[in-house]
Amino acid sequence: MEKKKTNISLLAAAKVRQSGLFLSVKRGVQELGQLRPVKKEVSPMPKAQRPLTVSVIICTSGRWKGLRDAAASALKENSGGEVLVVWNRPDGDPEALLPSGVRWVRESKPGLSFARNRGAACAKGEFLLYMDDDAVAGTDFASQIKDAFLRRPKAAVIGGQIYLPLPSPVPEVVLPGHEGLWSAYTVPFRQYRTVHEQYAFPYGACFAVRSSALHAVGGFPENYGRVGTGFEGGEETALCFLMRQRGWEIGVQPSAWVEHRVDPRRFTREHVKNTLRAGIFTTFRLCRDGYAPWNWDSAYLKKRMLLAAQELSRLRRKGTEMECFYKKCERDAFAELWLAVSNKNTAAEGSALC
């Protein structure tokens, strides 16, 4: 399989073009103004209790299309390790779809975090490499992850790149620089790098964690993660924050990669709207629950809503129709969240007065 050209930068330069340099800098200053220091416990890395091999874990809620290709590619690119499928539904089984040599286990409770934790409990290897059921593994992706972990004893999480092949012609709903709405994750560097910021944390279809470290923090937080056809995620980001609070490192190994073969039916405006909204709401939850080191209170949410409204006004004069649509989705999501938080705060204040 030939490696695809990088299609998105973590620096998201397109956002600067879309929002305007002044507004982007202003938004960055507002973000920095909300920062509060992260408390680091600096825990020693737990000793491995399992063989230093890679267990590729594919969680699926029963999506048949692509599962066999995903499992076969993982098996091919994980020499010396295992491939484990977690069947996240109470009925049926994937036996007929799986190549010989692939194990599977059942997790009846719906939800990606439950499935990931089940896979972690049943896996044999110390390095757990999670891969989506609609992805195809890149050349030697498992050995690249394993070597990175062995060279970086303080790394608890290491991710790889996620390339997004786009349909031809490219759907008009795909705004350049926003391929991450379909789980693309690519980086502008070629060597392993430790990352520190939320926007740079790896996620999704090429996400690896040490089993010993995962068990030390209690697994993926099970109040996060997608359930069914929902859009909410955030369990990988919450986990990365937990690892950093313990003093462990989060890294990216660019030479490990997968190709994420998204169903063409997902390239819709509804998908954009729901994914943008879910991202904003999930980041708020990460702040509220003490994972992210910011304070997205009512006042801050109102500022973001008003800033998005100002940017939308500018884009209506100078931007494209699709840029306006994206910004409107952002403004509406912040407005919805601000209203919900404001009403909750008002109700709490009223209860206190009574």
From TrEMBL:
Gene Ontology MF: a single term: glycosyltransferase activity
InterPro entries (alphabetical): Glyco_trans_2-like, Nucleotide-diphossugar_trans
Keyword Iron: no
SUPFAM superfamilies: Nucleotide-diphospho-sugar transferases
Annotated Glycosyltransferase 2-like domain residues: 55-216
Keyword terms, alphabetized: Glycosyltransferase, Transferase
Highest taxon of the lineage: Bacteria
Any Pfam family: Glycos_transf_2
The keyword Glycosyltransferase is annotated on this UniProt entry: yes
Known pathway: Cell wall biogenesis; cell wall polysaccharide biosynthesis
Family statement drawn from the similarity comment of this UniProt entry: Belongs to the glycosyltransferase 2 family.
Protein name: Glycosyltransferase family 2 protein
Organism this protein belongs to: Ructibacterium gallinarum
